[in-house]
Amino acid sequence: MKSSSGNGAPRFSLVTNHGRVLACIAADPEARLRDMAHSVGITERRAAHIVGDLERAGYLTRSRAGRRNRYEVDGATKVRTPRMHTLTIAQLLALLLQALERQLG
Description:
Helix content is 46%, strand content 11%.
């Protein structure tokens, strides 16, 4: 694994791009794909693909608001990860946001 800096630390993320895009949408349901992509560090095309994946999986719905998309996270949907299957999306997002707030202080 390559390091991201000269200190030899491995470059990886514990939260997937799908999770990060979902968190962006939860924080701003009217976020543009461009903004999501910039926030996550991916291309706009990749952000669009991830939003499609999340929509097909039932984690969110997309609707039109004029010329823009508006997203709604279905917080009642269960997380589809074996060890976290008892959590809802809303609970998982709350845990992630609490951890980020503690980290950023």
